[in-house]
Amino acid sequence: MPATVAGLRYPYSRVLLPRTRLAYVHLRNLLTDAKRDRSARVSGYVAIWLPEEFLVLYLQRGELVNACLHNGKEFCPIAIGAAVEKVPSEPEYGEICFHEADDEQLSCMYASQATAPIAWPPELRSSDPKSLFPYLMATTFDGVVEIAQEGEVNYLLFRHGTAHTAYLSGTHRGTLVERVSRIFDRDRRALHVAIRRWALPAPLPVQAPTGLVQAYRDLATSLVLRLVADGRESAPAIAEHARTTLMLEHPPLEGFSFNGRAPRAVVADADALTVAIAALINELLWTASDQEGGGPEQMLRDLTHERRHLFQSAGLFDRLSWKLA
Question: Which range marks the domain in which residue 56 is found?
Fold first, then answer.
């Protein structure tokens, strides 16, 4: 793993588990305790340094809600299940920590890992505070600025060009101005400071639960099999064509397959996933089913009955073209 990743340190408000060898910690037990133990139901992150990769698991009130992976080159979102599976049950190498952090900081961290930053003007020397902060003030910048130096990652939130909140990895002593100044003045190494910025981050996205993803996969597969049983042997091809056609507008459909390809992991929130599946079902049934005799309605009633409460709470029925009693 590159040294820049191995030394990453993010801000925190409280240390729940200091950085320690992964071999001494059972990850799944740690996550289960965070969900069950009242004192551990906090918002924060679990950082895991593997030999070739770096994982950040995001928790809100003890629930694992999202994850990002650094593959040695860049960060990218990753499905929660896939992230947890990357950690060996009996690891020989790696390190882990569990830190409590504000939800606002988690939003900044996720935005910096999952979205592209806003470019600086080419004439601006962003690593020079005498140029950076006057520029932010002059442009009345609203957003978050990430300041990274020697593995320490810091976040400043700006409103109308003025910093109003800071999440800093270093010392907690002194005023905000003094603490930020230390980042740039440390041994006069401003040239080694990396500065990036984003618009005001949205709240930390919550990935769709694994159970909901599997329920939608089972429903989509059952619909295709039912259509084949009713004489539409082309149903798998129709479903795959609908999926590929809709995928540009609905990226979560990348996690489904009807041509034998192994489905990819789904990285999406529950609403986006539900909208995508509803669009796929509508397209499939309008194209492949018998529209007379209540065919689609009866088929959907039969195949959704067992998990109707799950689908109802997710809002699936409200987005279908057919209203089910």
Answer: 3-101
